[in-house]
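[job 0412] stage=fold_complex status=start
inputs:
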Amino acid sequence: MTADIKHEGGTRRDFLQLTAGAFGVVGAASVAWPLVNSLNPAKDTLALSTTEIDLAPVQLGQSITVMWRGKPVFIRHRTPEEIQKAQDVDVSALNDKEPDSQRVQKPEWLVVVGICTHLGCVPVGQKTTEERGEYGGWFCPCHGSEYDTSGRIRKGPAPKNLAVPPYEFLTDTLIKIG
Amino acid sequence: MGSGYRQPFKNPVVEWIDSRMPVFTLMQKEYGVFPVPRNFNYFWNFGAIAGVMLVVMIATGIVLAMHYTAHVDYAFDSVERIMRDVNGGWLIRYLHMNGASFFFIAVYIHIFRGMYYGSYKKPRELLWILGVLIFLLMMATAFMGYVLPWGQMSYWGATVITNLFSAIPLVGDSIVSWLWGGFSVDNPTLNRFFALHYLMPFVIFAVVFLHVWALHVPGSNNPLGIEPQTEKDTLSFHPYYTVKDTFGLMVFLLIFAAFVFYAPDYLGHPDNYTPANPLVTPAHIVPEWYFLPFYAMLRAITFNIGIPGTEIVFITAKLGGVIAMFGSILLWFVLPWLDTHPVRSARFRPLYRLFFLILIAVFALLGYIGSQSADAHWGPVPLSLLGLACTGYYYAFFLGILPWLSRYEKAKALPSSIHEAVLKVKAPAAIVILAVLCLASPSARAAGDAVHPPAQHWSFNGPFGTFDRASLQRGLKVYREVCSACHSLDRVHYRNLEALGYDEAQVKAIAAEYTVTDGPNDEGEMFERPARPSDPFKAPFMNENAAKFANNGALPPDLSLIVKARHNGPDYVSGILTGYEPAPEGHELLPGQNWNKYMPGHVIAMAPPLLDGGVAYEDGSPETVEQYSHDVVNFLTWAADPYLEERKRLGISVLIFLAVFAGLMYAVKRRLWSDIH
Ligand code: FES
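[job 0412] stage=fold_complex status=done
writing structure:
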């Protein structure tokens, strides 16, 4: 009998201690969360800016770089050969399998975020005089990733294709990114 | 701590304090009479040296923080202001910059000493783990500190390293954007890095305290790796080791000072003298030398790991690299359980010693590989393959060789006690480790197919170098009449020209030749006025876009730091100025392009700027392209490094002081230890 009472008392004490402990943990976590969360992108940073670009002056074969959300976006006016090359690839042999048709809205305009999917360098190849790698797209000088004329990863350590940002054609030559 | 019996002190003030809070008793116990094995070699100096370097870093860092502005628009400028306008600022910054490298040198030697002599083994496991923790904290602190000047390497280093976290499956991208506080490395990132860079050293300080505490319970290991048994085996810390440590410290500081005063930028990277540009990645990104071995392991994994012949991938190449890199340090945490051999010191474990020395060489080789570009070759061998082999050995050493040796290695007979053992310093090991560390630190040189410009003789070279004032003045003339048509010189002010040998009135007159825009005035209008000595050199264009527009889209770089921002800056700039040639057969140049044999890639937008006779010299110096380029490079070197002469002069005094101090300490040490041996 005495043992039972003791046992019951013990359980009650355990329960109280556990509950108190849980309150402590919840309290500490709810104080910590706002601190941690404050480091996430702030509202002004998040305000998704959109950029409108007039493509009329961009000659066939030329590329331009525009800024969007603090990142460079590559817009390449592809030549028929470049388009052909991009479409002829055997998609199943790619690392990141995407047919060219999924990556462009109009085949002559390729729009990609100019940030290497490996560790974030800006690949070179925007100018025709720059190194473009074996596949004629872009070459990342940091660790040697090579992209093709559709911005797809073909060689090197980068795991993914260059990202395609959200964009739409407002007119034939006016494009809105974001 | 300190309750219980206490010996009273004679000094009444000390006694008054000590009877209320026995800090003097504590110090006396832990640092005064604390028994230390008598057979330390000089490798045991590096713990104390690392401690001193931590204090040097904190002291210089606090002062630098008072002058620094953590904002993307001002960070680079504020650092240059420290270098040019803050009193002695260049010295404080160079101490801090090179201090980081020397802190790492001391810590690397300290760590490898611990590994060689088995200092991590029972009962010192916790001591070792705290040490590894300090090393990790140091790496984080150094990385964030390197971001603060906001140069090209700062920015791209930060981008590459923070992107490592994106390799984590599922949550990687959210973590990265949380680290950045945005969608790329930007102002929020710089701000938090500054806050953390300021905080972390104090955390390190706290862990160092724990590290020392954990040391003072079992006491120090020693080169024999056997515990002291009697009083004959030990000496009191003071004066024997305080004196010996001070001597070692002075020698270390002597080398440190040689770098600070005579090669302050050798361990850094020229690209970091170019302000950060989110649109252009430098051709060759490398971290600071102390990260190179780990960086090489990151790059060594270039393949996915999965089931061969199928599409199934468990670990992508990117994640694999990240795991290889972080894992290489995490292994150190469990080192005491990987190596369970009962004998500590490598002196009695010939096999362990052999494999360990190979590990050191491999580590150094990894450092070299990390400094080279990703597609570099050694003859026919791609360096990345060599990097993979080295990474393989590194892991095999910890996970295979050590456990295997723990079971099967037969150790040599241990001496019965420290004082009986014949004490001879094992120099070979010392030399190997030092040589390897020197090898591990060559700064990376940019690759490129350009011919290297010939090395010239400059009056400012060498430890006693000075500027040739007449040449500086002629160089200023060349800049003003030729270069300044396109290139700005933002960081130089007219007032600075007094250093070229002009007096106040002359400087005023030079400034007054320029008209600058000022305002707004009381009516709110901008107005023009003649420049004053306190103004910076007037830029040829209103802003970068105007400069680009006027130059076919190519931006003429600001020249204030051009000499520091290029490898072998003076020779390089002078090479570019004189290296114009007609393009060789088979190279088509577009309109607006020129061929220059010293330009990486050879194609340059700048037309040949200098012509024989183009600038009139009043002092009868030859009016040739060679002479012009020599003079203007002299001038630009001064513009980039205005304190060069003062730095070299001060360096001599500091080196002499330290050398004499070291000599004195050595004499004191010899006297003191003469009756011990
Ligand atoms: S960042 Fe492009 S290859 Fe590594």
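[job 0412] summary: The helical segments of chain A are 2-37, 43-46, 80-88, 100-103.
[job 0412] exit 0
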